[in-house]
Amino acid sequence: MKEFCHYLEKGADVLGLSLSPEQVGLLAAHARELIRWNAKINLTAITDIQLVAYKHFLDALAAARFLDRPSRIMDMGSGAGFPAVPMKVICPDLDVTMVDAVRKKVSFLNHVVRTLRLNNISALHARVEDLAKDSGQLQMYDAVTARGFADLGKLAGLAGPMLAPGGKIYALKGVHASEEVTSELTKQFHITHRSYTLPVVEAQRVVVILEARQTHASAL
User: Fold this and answer.
1) Residue 134 within any structural domain of the chain
2) How far is it, in rounded angstroms, from Cα 47 to Cα 81?
């Protein structure tokens, strides 16, 4: 994975991210297992090692800069572990629950966690639509993250019940994310955008952060 490490370190330098040799090694191990497992199950359509480094790993690492920490996080639709696993590697104080409806992907996620020997991160096999029926999940998280999972309206509806008071939703989106912001969402949430550009591939990315507006009873 020498080539992957080169691209990862080069991209991290451009983004102003500082990665330790240990963190680079962990991320490379994740990439190695991703490529190996992808030959058996469909985890990603991106197979070029440079694009894997930039579009998967650096995208997640760049977005991690905007997280409030320490936090208990639910990552919805984790798939191959993005953004959850790289975020955990660069922010080891996070407590992460990854959720995916595809059992094979959950098996992969648990394998990665074991391989990387990460603590306080686990994968849950479930449909996110069913989580609101699980009292053990309601209002348990400081943040919900999701990348390419659903439009903002649907994501807000699914993630909202999971958030503890003051919790936030972090949606990793493309450059047209603002088109998903509706008047209904702006009534319910304080919404901010954090933009960045992935190096080399020059992809414009946005983290849309939704924080529920507090409603106060009238003092009159």
Assistant:
1) yes
2) 15
